[in-house]
Write the C-alpha cells for this entry.
Amino acid sequence: MKPIDYVPAINAYYQGLGYPEYDWTINSDAPFTPLTKPLGECRVSMLTSGGISHTSRPPFEPTAKNNLRVDAVDPCAAICDFDVNDAYYDTRDARVDINVVFPIERLRELAAEGVVGSVAERLWSGFMGRTYNRTAVIEEAAPALVRELGKDEVDLMIMVPA
C-alpha cells in the first residue's frame, strides 16, 4: 500500500471547493536547544491542540479556524472535568481516555516516578482547529505562550498535536 501524500491531497480537496492553493510553511531547519540540566530536574509543561477544554471554561468551537485561544489548565484537574470539542479528527478515543490527546495522568506519573523533576503550575490547551494565519501565531500567540512558560520557569514543553 502506498502512503497518502497529504499535501497534494489537501490542496486538491480545497481547490475543488474553490479555495486558492494554500501557502504551506516550509521550514528549512529545526532549531534544537539541548536541556541544560538532567530530565529528572526539569519542570515540564504540556500543550495539546486537540480541542480539550476544562468544564470551567467555554468549549472550543469544533470547526474553529484561526482560533488562537490558549487556555491554562490546572495540572491537578480531574480527567472527568474535560470536554473534547474538535471536528478535525476522530475524537472517539479521546472521549474514552483524555490521555490520548492530553496525557495529563501520564505526565503526573512521570513526575511521581522522578523521571521528570516536576509538572509546571500550568498546562495548556489551544491552537486547535485550522490555523491559516501563521503571522499571528509566529508574531503574537506563540511569543505570548513562551512568556507564560517563562513565568512558570518551564524547562521542557511537551507538544501533543491532535
Notes: Helices lie at 6-16, 92-96, 104-112, 134-151. The mean pLDDT is 91. The chain has one domain: 37-160. DSSP finds four helices and seven strands in the chain.
